[in-house]
Each structure stands twice: as C-alpha cells, then as structure tokens.
Amino acid sequence: MTIGGTDVATPTPTQESASTPEDPKTVRENARAEAKAKAAALADILAPVRGRIILAQLVQILASAATIVPYIGIVELGRTLLAPGTLDTGRVWLVVWLVVGGLAARALFSFLALAITHFADLDLQARLRIRITDKLGRLPLGWFSRTSSGAVRKSVQNDVADLHYLVAHAQVEAAAAVLSPIFALVYCFVLDWRLGLLAIATVPLYALTYSWMARDLTAEMEKMDRGVARISATIVEFINGVAVVKTFGQTGKAHRRFIEAADEFNDDFAGYMGPMLRVQAITTVLISAPLILLVNLGVGYWLVDNGWVSPIELVGSTLIAMVLPSALLTVSTAVHTRQQASAAALRIADLLAEPELTIPENPKVPNGHDVVIEDVHFTYPPRLGVPSGVKALDGVSVTLREGTVTALVGPSGSGKSTLATLLPRFGDPDSGSVRIGGVDVREIATSELYRHVGFVLQDVQLLTMSVRDNIRLGRPEASDEEVYHAALAAQIHDRILDLPDGYDTIVGDAAHFSGGEAQRVSIARALLADTPILVLDEATAFADPESEAEIQKAIGALMVGRTVLVIAHRLGSITHADNIVVLDRGRVVEQGRHEELLAKGGLYSMMWAGYEAGTTRQDEKIARGASGDDSMIESNGVAR
Fold this sequence. Notes:
Elements: E1 2-3, E2 6-7, H1 13-18, H2 24-46, H3 50-67, H4 69-82, H5 89-138, H6 141-145, H7 149-161, H8 164-191, H9 193-199, H10 203-213, H11 217-240, H12 242-247, H13 251-286, H14 289-305, H15 311-352, E3 371-379, E4 391-400, E5 405-409, H16 416-422, E6 431-436, E7 439-440, H17 446-452, E8 453-456, H18 467-471, H19 480-489, H20 493-497, H21 515-529, E9 533-537, H22 545-559, E10 563-567, E11 579-584, E12 587-592, H23 594-600, H24 603-627
Helix pairs in contact: 2-15, 3-5, 3-8, 4-5, 4-15, 5-7, 5-8, 7-15, 8-9, 8-15, 9-14, 9-15, 10-13, 11-13, 14-15, 19-21, 21-22
C-alpha cells in the first residue's frame, strides 16, 4: 500500500496466516502430512546407501553382542574368586581372556560398522552435491531471481551436511543403543527373572511421563513457529515502512505491534514450557544413576537376603541397569537427528523437483535479430506459501524490429520485468511464443541463445575474481586490449586503473565498487560480449547524480546498432525510443512513439503528466536548496 507517496510493505499471505489461529485438527493433519512427506523424501535420499547402512547395522549386532561379554566375565570371575576351596587360576585367566576378547571384538566390529557408514556418507554427499549442482545448472534463471543465494547455499552445503550425522553415526549408534541393552537384559533374565525386572524398574515410569510430555508437541511447535513468524512479520513491516512511520510520528505504534507479538509469543512459550520443564525434570530423575542404583541395591538386598540371588549376580545386574539411561538418551538423540535430517531431505527433494529449463533435442539457429513476442501468457509458480500462482502476463504481443529500441513502461506490477526476462529465458511462457529471427527461444541451444541475447540488470552481480575476468565473463577468450576498449566505452577504465592491482584486482578483496561503478563494469561486460540483442533494465533508476551521467554515456555506447528492449523507470529517458509499449495488469494497453501516445491521452499520457510534475517539484526543491531558501531542510540535509 502507499502512504504519503511512499510504498509500505503489505504482509504476504504467509505473514497474514502466521498470526491467524488455525484449527488444532487442521494443524495435526498438516503436521502428519508434512511428516509423511519428510519420511518419503528421506527414504528417497538415502536409497543409494541404504544397503550399506543395513550392512553396518548387522555388523553392529556383533559388536552389541560382544558388549555383554565383560558383564558375564565380572559375574563369572566373582563366582570363581568367591568359590570355597582352592582358587582355580586357570578359570580366572580364561575369564580374563574372554573379557579381553569381548572388548576387542566390540571395538573391531564397532569400528567396522562406523567405517562402512562413513564411507557411505562420503559417497552420498558427493552424489547429492553433484545432483544439486547439475540441477542448478538446468534451472531457469528466473528461479535464481526469486530464490536467495542463502537458500541455494543452504541446499548445497547445510542441508547435505545435516544428513552426515544420521548416515555416519546415528543409524549405527541407535542400533547399538537398542541392541546392547537387549542383550544385557537377556543376560539379567538368564541370571534371574527378578533381576531382569529390577533392571528396568524405572523405565516404564520414564516412558509414561515422557509420552505425556510429548503428547501435544507437534501442535505446540506449530504454534511456536506461527509466533516466530508473526514477530518476523512485524520486524519486516517496521523496517520496510520505517520512513513512513517516522514521518507520521507512528514509531511508538509500530514498536507496540512488535512488543505485543513478542509478549504473546513469550506467554505461549512460557505457558507450554513451564509445565514441560517440571515433567522433564521428573523424567530425568527416573533414569538418573543415583535412583537406579538405589532401587537396584535396595530391592536387590531383599532378593539376596531371601536367598533368591547371589551378591555377585546382583552386582552384575546393577551394572547393566546403570547403562540403560545412556542408551535411552542415545535413542532420543537419534530420533531428533532423524527429524532434522528429514527436514533437510525434504528441502533437497523440493529443489530437485523444481521444473527445469527444457533443452531442445534439435536446436536451431536464429536467422536475423528481430524479436516477435506473440500471445504470451505467464503465471508465476507458487511460492512463499501462496497456494496458487499469480498471472503476470495475459496475451501479450510485441514486435521488436532489428536494430530498434523498444521500451516497456507501466505501473509497478504490470509485468514489465517478467516480459523482458522471457527473452533471455529466465522462464518460459505458459502459452504463446518468443521468437528470435523466426526461431522460438525454446528451440535455441542455451549457449547459442546467449551469443544473441545479452542483458544488463539493476541488480549487478560481480564475482569474486579479478576485474578483468569479471568483464570478460561472457567472452573468456577476449584479449586484454578488447577488455580495455570495453571498459573505456563503459566509462570505468580510469576507475579500474586506480585500483591497487588495476585490472588484476580481486573484486570484494581490494576492489570495492559503488553501485554506479559496478553497473558500468556490468555494461563493459555486455559491450565485450557484443550480443546483437540487448535487454536493459534501466540502470540509472537508483543511481546517484554523479554516476548517472557516466552510466548514460556507457548505455549510449552499448545500445548502438543493437535490437534493444529496455525496461523504463524514468519516462524522460525513453522519449526517443522507436516503440513504447505500455503494460497494465499484464496486458498491452498502448504502444507507439512518444508523441503518438501523448496525443492519445491514455495511460501513457497520464504517466507522463505525473512524471513531469514530479520532475518539476524535484527541480524546484534543488533550486531552493542551492539558494538556501528551503526552510524544511537544514544544512546537514536532515528534515526538521
């Protein structure tokens, strides 16, 4: 929405829904559906290494079986040492060597199991990163425009790394945590069934309290997520509209909205976590070593006193009972790790399922450089929680004659950028066609297409490499002289020479360009690529006055002799265009030369009147500031 001439961010559907209470049943159903999707994605991701994981778990069975040998040895050694009569030293050494053998077998099989899973993990990470990188290379450029670099990096690095512990450790450790106690408990029951029951006496109570604590966990976590989303929405809204709220004295009101959201989240969090922490404290006590020791020795004394078990058998079963808590914690950690890995797997699966840019089986070469856009319809893919796509273009038809300049103008959201980016295939239309030299761009090989179509956008991307390599990114074989010539034409040569290492200076290291300077480097890149068709998102829209003149000169050199499609933000810069196309709500409402459109008295005429009025006000403001008459501006440029 617009307040006082300033655009203020309107909450997206995601933000609005974040603060809208949902039916608990719906939340549970959504949570179950998401859990199923995560489980399916994880199963698919782990499919290449599932066989090796199972093999490692089988090996771990042997290690877990060997784990019980030392406990058996302690009991048997105690029986031998406490037996009346002459000490059987041969039996003592036999038991000792059996214990040593058991420990060695456990170490060997555990190492082998973990080695299998670690090699499987390395293989899986390599496979996934290759798949993701290959996928990124086949996605349309428009996907990168609507996806942050942080999200891409998270998929390639973090999400793949989140699978490491699950594959390399958790599966084997969970198997050990389950199997080792089972083997140990079997031995306890072999000694005496009463000792077996005593060893797990507190476990049922732990399981009951833990399940009670986790009964509403999914719904509460959803509620917490909505609370965090609401807080984030109020922060974004405040930052985006900070100029407006300060101008109209609404800063306190904006702060209150954030404080209210934070207080509500705090109350919900405290209301849920307070009782849960008390219950968690109880569950922790139920499997704590002192309580287990107290229960086993206290009840065990009664068993020994009644002659049902021997003291050494009680010692053995008590030692086994003491290791059960660590096994439960290991299983709990493995469950949490699996949930984390499932979420990462779902994100990776979503990325791998993104629609790819089609590659023509029999590519064609354009015959000429005229462009024909015919009856194009385009719908944005669903994103940011929006359930259905938004139609951006609705039956657009435009012809760009070879060697002419065509400008796209229209209100914000009219489809200008969407239409322009269909030419370099940032995306493909739902229907209709975009043809270059009589050939649909979908039938042109990508490498061939970018030899014909170049683009200079406002959002300049310079890579962490030398300035020279940044300029010749589109033509790596270009000579140094050609690079210098392009930089001169782009009005950036002298600035590059002032850098510590000139053209060899690394961007982001010793080379730090302003927005206007980076734009001129981008223009030099486009000049060197020398494509006959150029898509130009007016580069001076947000340039400072000092950079604007230099950029305009560079753009003038860039446009000579080319078929140009320019997205116009300032109408004054396209008055001499061969054809001006006026878009509104995804449709072409007018087109023609500047004078023709003014004579029609339509949307363009209204936009031009607004542009002239705004320019006049700006000129008057500058004049008043220069003469010291502008009483609203102080000497430091801050409004009173």
